[in-house]
Design a protein that fits this description.
binds nickel (II) ion, three-stranded antiparallel beta sheet, alpha+beta, globular, 3 helices
Length: 177
């Protein structure tokens, strides 16, 4: 097990487009998944994309369990998603606060498609195809943006709604992704 350093905004590796995973059955790939799981757990993250630990491959993980630390958090099934394709299934957008492990200590109001369909593969190469809404839809759009070199501040339309978590939400611990 290995907890990796999460790259922070400003690092050019976060701006690159990630490459597809071609082979699932390698020690290197299994180690990557384990490292991402260990890192997300250590950081109490809701999601993590491989480029955030400096690996330019199309791999994201996300998931939120019911947790007394985050009583308002919506549950999202724990998912490893490889080579994802995300498509909106509505043009309607929703705005909500987001944070990111690569932009620590900040929150911004980000518009996202309210419903998306995504497909890809789990870590064993098994197909995943889901239509989702709510926080599940938001987190998958956030994570898959990382694979295109996009960080959530690039999606903010109203910069009056961007700031430090400790100022915007005093006394609260909020998950980052
Ligand atoms: Ni992020």
């Amino acid at each position: 097990m290995a907890i990796k350093l999460v790259l922070k905004m400003g690092d050019s590796r976060l701006l690159q487009v990630a490459e597809r995973v071609e082979t699932f059955d390698t020690l290197e790939f299994k180690t990557l998944i384990q490292d991402m799981q260990d890192t997300m757990e250590a950081e109490n993250g809701a999601g993590l994309a491989a480029p955030q630990i400096g690996v330019g491959l199309q791999v994201v993980i996300f998931g939120v369990e019911k947790n007394s630390r985050y009583p308002d958090a919506e549950e999202v099934p724990y998912t490893v998603l490889v080579n994802p394709v995300v498509k909106p299934i509505t043009q309607s957008m929703e705005e909500d606060w987001e944070g990111c492990l690569s932009v620590p200590g900040m929150r911004g109001m980000v518009p996202r498609f309210s419903r998306v369909r995504y497909h890809g593969f789990d870590q064993f190469g098994k197909s995943i195809d889901r239509s989702v809404d709510g926080f599940h839809s938001r987190v998958v759009q956030h994570e898959c943006d990382h694979l295109q070199g996009i960080l959530y501040p690039m999606r903010i339309t109203n910069f009056r709604m961007f700031g430090y978590t400790e100022v915007l939400f005093p006394g609260q611990t909020l998950m980052e992704e």
